[in-house]
Every structure is written in C-alpha cells, then in structure tokens.
Amino acid sequence: MSQEQTKSEAKSCPFNPYAPGFDVNPYPAFKELRTHAPISYWDQGHGWIVTRYEDVVTALRDNNRFSPNPADWEFASTLGRAARFPEMEEISSSSLLVLSDADHARVRRLVSPAFTPRAVEWLRPQIQAIVDELLDAAAAKGTVNVVNDIADPIPARAMGSLLKIPKEREVPFQRFTEAVIKSLSPIMLPPEEVEAVRKDMREGLVLLRETIEERRRDPKENDILTTLIQTEEQGDKLSTAELLSLVGALIVGGFETTVHLIGFTMSNILRRPELFAQLKAEPELIKNTLEEVLRHDNFGKLGLTRYSREDVELGGVKIKKGQRLFLMTNSAMHDEAAFPDPETFDVRRNTTATVSFGNGMHFCLGVHLARLEGRITVGTLLERFPDMKLVKPPAFGSHPSLRKLETLEVQLLARS
Ligand code: HEM
Predict the structure, then answer these.
(1) Per its UniProt entry, which superkingdom is the organism in (predicted)?
(2) pLDDT level of residue 290 (50, 70, 90 thresholds)
(3) I want to staple 260 with a disulfide (CB 3.0 to 4.6 A). Which of 102, 108, 156, 299 is the partner?
C-alpha cells in the first residue's frame, strides 16, 4: 500500500489559530504538528496546513505546481467570491501575486530596479523626518501605544513619500490605504462602514489615476512612480492597470507587515532587558534583531497561501488539483531541521535561511524598504528613549490572518 495520504486519510488537524492563547504563543501548536502531522487537512480553513521547512520551501519554489492565484482554488467561485469588494478587482487584476508566470516575470523585471537597496536608500531622510515627527509628538505624551502612535502611521506616510503624493492629496491617499487594508478582511468590517470604505477606495482610485497621468506629463527626479512610468525594456512598458495593481500590491504587502515588524521588534526588545542593553551598546545589531524577530516571533498566523495546479505529492501527502495549502513560514522557521536550537532567540544568528520575506519568484519586492523603515524607527526609538519601559504586557486583538499586536503601552522617559 502506498505511504502517501490523501485528504480523506490524513490525520484530523488539531490546528485552531483562533484558540485562546494562540496569538500570544502559537509555537507549541506548530511543534506538535511538525512532529505528528506535518501536512494535515484543516477542515474549517478548507486547506492543508504545511508546517515543515523543507515542504514549505519546496512549495514556494515550485511555481509550476503551486500557484498563489486564488482563481486556481477549487472553491474560487463560491467561498472565494464573497470575500472581495468589486473595487479591489481594479487594483488586483494585474497584481504580482495573481499574474501568470511569464507576465509576472515581465512586470517584476520592470519594477525591480525601483526597489533595490540603492533605490530605496534615497528615502532615508524622508523616513527619518516622518519618524522624528512622530517621536516628538510621542515624547510630548510621555506614555504611548507604540502600535497606534508610532508604527501605524509610518507605512502610509512612507508610501506617500515614495510615490510623491502631493500635499493636498495626502489625506485622501491615507484614507484610500486604510480602505484597502480594511477591504482585505470584509468579515471584520461592521456593515455600516462598508459603503464608506468602498467610497474611499473609489476616490483613491481616481486620485491614483490622476497622479499617474500628471506624472506622465510632468516627470519628477528621484521618483519611483516616474521610474516605473518611464521604465522601458525592449519597447515594453507598464500599463496604467499594471501601475494601479502595483500600488495596490505595495499597500497590501507593505502596511500591516511593517507596522507589525516595528511593534513585534519593540515588544521583544522591551521584554528582554539583556537584549535592550546589548542593543544600546551595539546599535549595529538592530539590523539582525529585526530579522531574528521575524524568524522567532513571526506575526503571521496563516502563513502564505498556494493552490495546487495539478494532482501533486508533497511530503508524502497527495494533494488534489485546486486544493489550498497554508504554507506556515512561522512554523518552518522553528523547524529544528533547518535552524539549530530554534526556540532560542539569538541576535547573532545567521538568518539567511529564513523565509519571513518568502522564497522563490514571489520573494518580497519591498524587503529593502521594510528593513529601512524598521531600522530607522527602532534605531531612533532606542537612541532617543534609552530608559523606556513597558507599562503593561502587550495585548493582542482579533485578526483573521495575523497575530495582531494591538497595544504595546510604553513609558518613554526622554532624557533631558
Ligand atoms: C516586515 C515587512 C514585510 C514582510 C514580512 C513581507 C513579507 C512578504 C512575503 C512573505 C511575501 C511573499 C508572498 C508570497 O509568496 O505569497 C511578500 C511579497 C510581496 N511584498 Fe512584502 N513584506 C514586507 C514588507 C513589504 C513592503 C514594505 C512592501 C512594499 C513597499 C512589500 C511589497 C510586497 C510585494 C509587492 C510582494 C509581491 C511580490 C511578488 O509577488 O512578486 N512588502 N512580502
């Protein structure tokens, strides 16, 4: 008899990301799965939970057999459809995560030069100015919630700088970014807010179209949007629909992730006095601290999603065409087969094998921007407030796919 399991033979999956305590520490549950049921079917989530490093990386690298496009899901026309606002279609139709391989490669080639470490480095003074302004306001308050008062506003404002959104359009642009984020979890949206969110999205789309047209007429120097409009490779250019989808992907990919990178890093530093002292003595370790937090205390709850393009076998399990997989990168980065002593937080660990920014062709486009925002924010916080203290333990809120850090209340104690 074959050793391979199918969905009906697979062990029932004890996975429950909505169980009390999961957000605070999901890692014992993942260890249990890696040990006893590394690929198991989760009925409520209609998908396979994949927990070992090797299987996660295999699926991420194999775009021929595993697609990130929800249209490839067996339930796309029923369960998938309810989850979206029509306005989202406009900014996701050509999104990097749904494009077919050749189109993806083409768009990625055109946009990648705008997101290299050098290309995002020129944003440093602008990000520093945003952080300084937020920290001035925070210092005046004395006690702050790092998530709401500091981390939350950073990505939208950094994105506004990145795209050089004119001053008079900053407020509607920020409303648009909030609406896009809210539309990702329509289940959590109170019915009375739905129309306002859709209106903000429609207005934001008009604003973006106008901004793209203006930039075509009036190109700017050192401007990513101008670079993207002008980038041409062998006569090939990005269309307006592709530019809109790219901005949508930057918002979807770069907002909650960056807020959580900052929140979780500060939470780890404040809960570990020895780490806090070490970083004050050696601030250059902040860089690796961010990577180790993403490995050791990743804020993801449901990992990365893929859909099998054909009947496949992964880790001894038979997966049918169209079935969904949740690739648990958070569990993978605690797999002892890939990381020695994975439960230990080690600020000097070699983190090159981590998959917090993905792996393969969909590897995070915004990785250098995320690192820049994280390093500037955490570095400036530690420099300005070396005596800051946690007021109470961090608290988590509900979120369908993230361990949502809601409050990180800190007394800043600025030195005079
Ligand atoms: C800590 C911060 C961040 C984390 C942990 C993160 C993580 C990821 C991961 C895991 C993927 C791969 C998704 C998959 O394979 O299904 C991804 C893709 C992507 N990320 Fe990020 N990201 C972060 C910040 C950002 C920022 C700041 C931006 C943009 C400004 C961004 C833009 C994107 C885009 C456009 C993709 C799609 C790339 C493609 O499909 O080719 N991300 N990110």
Answers:
(1) Bacteria
(2) very high
(3) 299
- Domain boundaries in the chain? 27-411
From 156, 159, 152, select the one nearest 123 (Cα to Cα): 159
Q: For residues 246 and 252, what is the distance between their CA atoms, to the nearest angstrom? A: 10
* Residue 318 tokens, joined: 């038979």
pLDDT above 70 for 80: no
Among the atoms of ligand 1, which is closest to the Cα of residue 298? 5
Is the domain spanning 27-411 CATH 1.10.4100.10? The answer is: no
Residue 2's pLDDT band (boundaries 50, 70, 90)?
very low
- Give dist(CA 182, CA 127) in Å, integer: 24
Closest to 327 in 3D by CA, of 359, 293, 350: 359
Could you give the maximum distance between any two Cα atoms of the chain, in Å?
74
Q: Please check whether residue 384 is in contact with residue 406, taking contact to mean a CB–CB distance below 8 angstroms.
A: no
**Structural tokens at position 172:** 């509607």
CA distances from 90 to 85, 204, 238 (A): 10, 12, 15
Ligand 1 midpoint to CA 1 (Å): 42
Cβ of 253 below 6 Å from ligand 1: yes
| Ligand 1 atom 40: residue of nearest CA | 362
The confidence score (pLDDT) of residue 79 equals 66
**What's the rounded mean pLDDT across residues 54-64?**
97
CB of 365 shorter than 6 A to ligand 1? yes
Whether residue 11 is predicted with pLDDT greater than 80 in this model: the reply is: no
Instruction: Tell me the CA distances in angstroms from 346 to 8, 213, 296, 297, one per residue in order.
Output: 41, 49, 9, 12
